[in-house]
Amino acid sequence: MHSDPALQHDISLRPFNTFGIDARARLYLRVASDAELQAALADPELARRPRLVLGGGSNVLLTGDFPGLVLHIASTGKEVLPGDTTHVHVRAAAGENWHAFVQWTLAQGLGGLENLALIPGTVGAAPIQNIGAYGLETKDVFHSLTAFDPGTGTTMTMDRAACRFGYRDSIFKQEAGRHLIITSVTFALPRVWQPNLRYAELANAVAEQGFDAPTARQIADTVIAVRRRKLPDPEVIGNAGSFFKNPVVSAGQCASLLERFPTLVHHRQPDGSEKLAAGWLIDQCGWKGRSLGAAGVYPRQALVLVNNGGATGADVQRLARAIQDDVEARYGVRLEPEPVFV
Ligand SMILES: Cc1cc2nc3c(=O)[nH]c(=O)nc-3n(C[C@H](O)[C@H](O)[C@H](O)COP(=O)(O)OP(=O)(O)OC[C@H]3O[C@@H](n4cnc5c(N)ncnc54)[C@H](O)[C@@H]3O)c2cc1C
């Protein structure tokens, strides 16, 4: 068996998931570098275990105890690379905290990531669900990443096309890429920066502060202020951010829903489909602020499910299913969870 004294047995994962679910892991290892990661997986005893790669634990729902090895990615390091004529490249190790990385790029005088400020979690997890907020997604600023394949023991570089990014989706959530462990991510930030204020709520918040020609720093500060107002702090109340994806439906389905529900909140997509606001659907079904056992719907944002204290993964799942059933019965749309169920 792996002789690393850092290997822990039968520990609570409560400090390692923002929902604050008290599930246990059979084995837990924090890896602070790629070398440590590779050494752990070179051990046949550890490599054969069911594996859960964990970053900040801000997008997982632990539905029960984990019978295998939790590999907690805690590698650090970030650097500015030369890039090309139009973009500067910045690379960070997978275990770096995402928000601290965004702040660091701004401190280097590099704009481009500011709309994604204050999203919890690690740099390595950002490509997994192509994190997005306020009109920007990871894919828009992504250059490449490195990923370790435990099956072959090799590290590969993947560009944007190889990652198959979609709305809250990538190859790493699919069969073809689920086994890969992201070790670093490189972003391409524009040499000539322009604000991205396509998202109306952000544009209004920036205008309200009297910023006519906002800097990237000012946009980041505005995003942080808006997020603090709207979203629960996981340090105070357990949650994983938006619990459901916004469902995407055909233009025809949206039109027939609008006939019955004229105030339906929807956003046309570039391909003609329509994205419905999942929070609005949940709110209309009367779930905002309601609880089922120890799991509840956040009173200020119906898209966020919270742990009111002592909730299990099963409690959250029960609440999620009740919401899905109600929304489907009323609107004919089945909501899909955003976090990864473990
Ligand atoms: C308050 C709050 C607000 C949020 N707001 C947003 C938002 O605006 N937009 C948004 O998109 N998301 C949001 N999220 C969700 C979450 O922050 C992101 O999905 C984040 O990228 C998850 O990072 P993590 O390190 O915590 O991942 P984890 O929860 O640790 O892991 C998530 C998944 O990625 C896998 N994984 C993690 N690291 C690696 C790696 N290095 N290699 C391979 N697989 C890996 C895990 O196995 C798991 O399947 C929010 C969450 C919270 C709690």
Automatic annotation (TrEMBL):
Q: In which pathway does it act?
A: Cell wall biogenesis; peptidoglycan biosynthesis
Give the GO terms filed under biological process for this record. cell division; cell wall organization; peptidoglycan biosynthetic process; regulation of cell shape
A Gene Ontology MF term for this entry?
Answer: UDP-N-acetylmuramate dehydrogenase activity
Q: Which cofactor does it need?
A: FAD
Q: What class of enzyme is it?
A: oxidoreductase
Q: Which residues form the active site?
A: R168, S242, E338
Q: Which GO cellular component terms, listed alphabetically, does the Swiss-Prot or TrEMBL entry include?
A: cytosol
Family matches, as InterPro entries: FAD-bd_PCMH, FAD-bd_PCMH-like_sf, FAD-bd_PCMH_sub1, FAD-bd_PCMH_sub2, MurB, MurB_C, MurB_C_sf, Oxid_FAD_bind_N
Q: Which reaction does it catalyse?
A: UDP-N-acetyl-alpha-D-muramate + NADP(+) = UDP-N-acetyl-3-O-(1-carboxyvinyl)-alpha-D-glucosamine + NADPH + H(+)
The reply to whether Zinc-finger figures as a keyword in the UniProt entry is no
Instruction: List UniProt keywords, sorted A-Z.
Output: Cell cycle, Cell division, Cell shape, Cell wall biogenesis/degradation, Cytoplasm, FAD, Flavoprotein, NADP, Oxidoreductase, Peptidoglycan synthesis
FAD-binding PCMH-type domain residues: 21-192
Please give the Pfam families that the UniProt record associates with this protein: FAD_binding_4, MurB_C
Instruction: Name where it's found.
Output: Cytoplasm
In the record, which residues are listed under signal peptide? none
Family in the record? Belongs to the MurB family.
Q: What does this protein do?
A: Cell wall formation.
Can you say what this protein is called?
UDP-N-acetylenolpyruvoylglucosamine reductase
